[in-house]
C-alpha cells in the first residue's frame, strides 16, 4: 500500500531550540504588574475614603439642623463684626422700648421725680451775636437766673453746629462766648449751613435727649419772641402725655419750580395735588420724650426734606403721635381769650440782621 511522503525538519540525532525571552520584556512586564497593583490600591483606598466620608455625613446630617441658623451663616461668611453690630442694635432697641419711646410705655425709675419739664433749643448762627443778646435781655434768662430756671426744670440753650472750616475764628468766637455765658448746645457732628437745617433738627433732638432727661424737647427759631411763662404753663398742662406733637399745625402747596422761594426738590413725591402733609410750623415745635427718643434711635434712616418743619412732620406721620394744634403757638395770631406765646420780632430783627451782615464776626 502506498503511503504519503512525509518530511521531517528534525535531523536524526538532533535537538529542537527553545525561544528565549529578552530581559527588557521581563522588566516591562514587572513594571506593568507593579503599576496595576498601585492603581488597584489607590482605587481601593479612594473607595474606603468615600465610604468613610459618606458615613460621617450621614452621622452629622442626623445631628445638624437642615436650615442653617443666622449664627451659622455669619460664621461661614466671616461676618463676626456684623453679628456684633446686630446684637448691639438689638440691645439698643430693647433699651429704647423699655425707656418708653413707644406710645403707652413710660420709664419708671427712681429718678423720674427729678426729670426736667423741658429742654428748649433756640436755633442760632455764627453771625447772630446781637440777636442772642436781644434774647438774653428779653425772654431768655442769663447767668444766675438761667440756673434758677433749670432748678424749676427748664433748660434753654442756643443750638449751633460747627464751622465748615473746623477750628477757624467762627468756632473760636462761639467757644469764647459759650465760656462766658454757658448757654450753648454745640452740635459737634453738625456742619452749620442753611441747607443743612433739616439735619440740624435730627441732631438737636438726638443730642438733647441724650444729655437731658425731660418730658418735652422744644425747637425754637431765632426770629420770634416767647412768653416763657406761658410756654411753661402749656407744657405743665400737657405733662405726662405720650406721643405729643405740639405746634401751630399747617399745610400748604409744594413748590415744584426751581429757583422760587420754598422750592422742594422732592416735590414729585407729594402726588398730583402737590400739597404738604399737616405739620407744625417751624417757628416752634414741641415733641414729647418718646418722640424725641424715636428720632434719636432712627436718625440714620429718617428722610429729610428741604425744610426742617416738613421733615419733622414726615417723621411723625409713621408713628403713633398725637397732633396738638395750639393757636397760641401761631406767630402773631390770637383767638378770643387766648394770649399768644409767640410774637414776631420783624422790625427789630431786620435792623439786627442789617448790622450783623456788616460784620459776621461780632
Oligomer: single chain
Strand-residue fraction? 15-25%
Contiguous uncertain segments of 5+ residues: 9-13, 103-112
Structural class: alpha/beta
Average pLDDT rating: 79
Could you tell me how far the N terminus lies from the C terminus, measured between alpha carbons in angstroms? 156 Å
- Estimate the helix proportion, in percent: 40-55%
Beta strands, count: 9
Biggest sheet, in brief?
A: 7 strands, mixed
What Rg do the Cα atoms give? Answer: 42 Å
Helix and strand succession?
A: HHHEHHEHEHEEHEEHHEEH
**Overall geometry:** elongated
- Counting DSSP H or I runs of 4 or more residues, the number of helices is 11
The strand order across the widest sheet is 3-2-1-4-7-6-8
Structural descriptors:
11 helices; EC 2.4.1.-; two-stranded antiparallel sheet; seven-stranded mixed β-sheet; membrane; 18% strand; 362 residues; Glyco_trans_31; golgi apparatus; transmembrane helix; alpha/beta
